[in-house]
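Schema walk-through. Below, the input block comes first and the output block second. Nothing else is stored per chain. Lengths vary across the set, and this one has 360 residues.
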Amino acid sequence: MTETGFEKAPARDRRRFPGISSRAYEHPADRSALVALRKLTGFDTVFKALSGLLPERSLRLLFLSDSVRVGETQFPHLYAMLRDACYILDLEKVPQMYVQQDPKPNAMCIGLDEPIIVVTTSLVELLDEEEMRAVVGHEVGHALSGHSVYRTILLFLTNLAMKVAWIPLGNVAITALVTALREWFRKSELSADRAGLLVGQDVTASMRGLMKLAGGNHLHEMNVDAFLEQADEYEKGGDLRDSVLKILNMLPRTHPFTTVRAAELKKWSESRDFQRIMDGHYPRREEDKDASVTDSFRESAAHYADAVRTSKDPLFKLVGDIAGGAADMGGKLRDKFTGAGSGSGAGTGPDAKGGATEQG
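--- output ---
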């Protein structure tokens, strides 16, 4: 096999997606931001200029000097998974991949010019083959979407915010940008989870992997259904104070909570969008240049509106009730002050005595 080609099919029989665009699996909020950025004139030029300011070369040298590069003679099983994931998602050039000694299970995809994938020894030891396949697919999905560029910038800005913390206005400005990037990146993680499912094509393995990230290598003590119930309890439990605490807990994170990721992925795996992709109906990369920014933002807005409408979270339910009931409340107030709707029969029948059931 060459760096840009493939000599053999995947390890087991799975569907391949020739020419697939990352728009096929991207979360609406992630997709709208990426489509807008790709449409910006001079976007590539700006980031190439910016790359001189970012520590990308230092990061590459660090991994090259103090980690193990995955290849045919080092971690060959991971190398096979990497090639396989690139084959499934039709990513022509295989990114470099490194294994880094770290007791915390983690993986990331960074880089401005070319993405590099890093997985920790703890993660490799924690997951079985099919669970790891989903993780590798997750990181290849980041590479295909171009997320590595923004992840690198986020790392740079986070470090910069720490260095200028003593400058009040400078720190506020950078912190605001970091907060916005983190919100986008959390959505990009949901996109990459979907890419991992497209590569592994085993939703159970994806669920197992997420459970292990939350509870460690005690799979015999865990249950997928119970794990998903936690996500439901987290979303709808508590009161408005808990809703605020959820937001505050989430703000410093670059990844959504694990139970939430599992629930989101399970929901997507059962959706019509996922089935269409598996049936071979998906947007192609050659069509990316024609993608509409307006349509992407409209889809993102519709997603958030639907999320508020269907959410079980107390704060979101309140927002939905206020938004949905504003017109009805205004109508009731108008009727009350104008006397409209009282009718000539007011004061007669069961309503006057409070015997009728109120209609919602």
